[in-house]
User: Fold this.
Amino acid sequence: MADGVTHLATAALPSAWSRHRAWPLVGLGTVLPDVASRAPGLALERVAKVVPLPEAVFWPWGVLHEPVGYVLLAGVVSGAFRPEDRRLAWRALVSGGVLHWIVDVLQDHHGVGYRWLAPFSGWRWELGWIGSEATVVAAPFLAVATLVGMAAHTRRRG
Assistant:
């Protein structure tokens, strides 16, 4: 949850100063890589407690967290928009994904890293500057800063 707040704040803080209609999609793009790659696996784990499932159904979802898979997912999601809005939706979702990866690359996942060039390469990399749970401490402050920024901007625009 804290990581989701952190990712959303990376889009919501700048959006507090902009009224562009695409900002909600940038926000969605900041959390979509985690939702698309982790939620199916978590749901399948619950199903597997009742019905045995082959191991192969759990691993493919991770590609939706990686740039190539996510860019394709953004294309599928943007297809739900009116034809004239699809390009803007795709760009906003991909922009949110980039913000997501900027936060993720800072983290240390015990030397595992992310496969940035998958499926073309298995090379993994991360900066490892902060622990993967470090955002738990920052999340409440980012949430409050975002809300204050949005309230101040809304009041100014009146």
Q: What stands out?
A: The chain has one domain: 2-157.
